[in-house]
Amino acid sequence: MIQLLKSNFIELLISSGLSQYWSNFIAILALVFTVLVIAYLIDKVARYILFTVFIRLVKKSKTDWDDLLVEHKVFYAFAHLVPVMFIFYVIPELLDQELIWVDYLERLSKTIFIIVFLILFFRILNVVKTIVSRIESLKDKPLDSFFQLAKIIISIILTLIILSILAKTKITFFFGAFGAMTAVVILVFKDTLLGFIGSIQLSANDMIRVGDWISMEKFGADGDVIEINLTTVKVKNWDKTITTVPTYSLISDSFKNWRGMQETGSRRIARSIFVNQSTVKFADQKLIEKFKKIHLLKDYIPNKENDILAYNQENNIDTSLISNGRRITNIGTFRAYLVNYLKNHPKINQDLTILVRQLDPTTNGIPLQIYAFSNDIEWISYEGIQSDIFDHILAVISQFELSLFQSPSGADFKKAIG
């Protein structure tokens, strides 16, 4: 039918006074233009029909995977295949087989078909990735990396196929050339390859997951991981900025993952106060009686007194000298008080370490470190808990006849001189 239409059109042009050559040329040009217009209309109709029919089916369906097909416009891409196939089969019949550019148009139509197919395949991959990412056990895996790698591999293969079609050469030739260019390919795709290797190592060793809170000072990252892809890891910082970290850097460089804190529901408190060394002393009887009135020390002081008395008697120690034997100190009692205070604090996790210890003395005094874990990891709550604890410590330390070290200010010198 196409050949008959073409012949009639050529005869009509010849009868109008045109030569055979120009009649053939104009007829072919007009018919090619007509085919392209028809292909465009077919594309519009195909998209309308597929979209209308599928929307109705989606509304009736109880599943949501078909909604993703609509969201990612899979059927739009599928509709593009129809006009491409129409052109692919009509053009050879339309043109004279002896014309050299018939072959070029056939190769071009095949290339367009492969490109449209590639777009369709990528959209289907996006749908699959969305569905897979909803699986609970895979939510924190670097799925983007694997799907991006799949797209790159498919793109390379189809590109080689397109080159073999355009050059009319066997695809094995291009695979051989591609292999010979391995060094160049590695250089060009270095970041991609390192990122993929990094993604595999991060996933295999469970070093990082989507949703983890990580800190990486080198890149200024401190926040939640929101995406792990082939080349970068996106971190949403606490100031709502986004930091992108090269994936492989999480293998080659050091970073802190706060997942353990999040899983236990506890956040560490490790802060020190500096006690003035000159205020440390043995407690006399008057001070001991004062300690006995402190609620958190009501059991500690009698037990400590009995323990010290038994030790001194057992070892026949002359306690008339203050340097002999064991005695109660104000700083030791203060440490015991703080331990009991933390053990009775409702915001401290009692199942984890609770410790009050002295660190090495410094020129700024004796560091007394409070080491415990709050049972609330939310930043504002955590800071409030920590501040409340140290507010109490700073206010109560004078009850133990201890004082904090503080470098003298101008006001202190002025007071001393005045």
**Low-confidence residue ranges:** none
Number of helices: 16
Global geometry: rod-shaped
Helix/strand order: HHHHHHHHHEEEEHEHEHHHEEHH
Helix content: 55-70%
Mean pLDDT: 80
Percent in strands: 5-15%
Side-by-side strand order of the widest sheet:
4-3-2-1-5
Alpha-carbon distance between the termini? Answer: 117 Å
Number of strands: 8
The structural class is alpha+beta
Major β-sheet profile: 5 strands, antiparallel
- Cα radius of gyration in angstroms: 40 Å
Can you tell me the number of structural domains?
3
Detail the topology: elements first, then pairings.
Layout: H1 2-15, H2 20-60, H3 65-71, H4 74-94, H5 100-133, H6 143-167, H7 171-180, H8 182-188, H9 190-204, E1 213-216, E2 221-228, E3 232-237, E4 242-246, H10 249-252, E5 256-257, H11 259-264, E6 267-275, H12 285-292, H13 300-314, H14 330-343, E7 355-358, E8 366-374, H15 379-396, H16 410-417
Antiparallel strand pairs: 1-2, 1-5, 2-3, 3-4, 6-8, 7-8
Helix pairs in contact: 1-2, 2-4, 4-5, 5-6, 6-7
Short description, anyone?
The protein is of the alpha+beta class and 418 residues long.
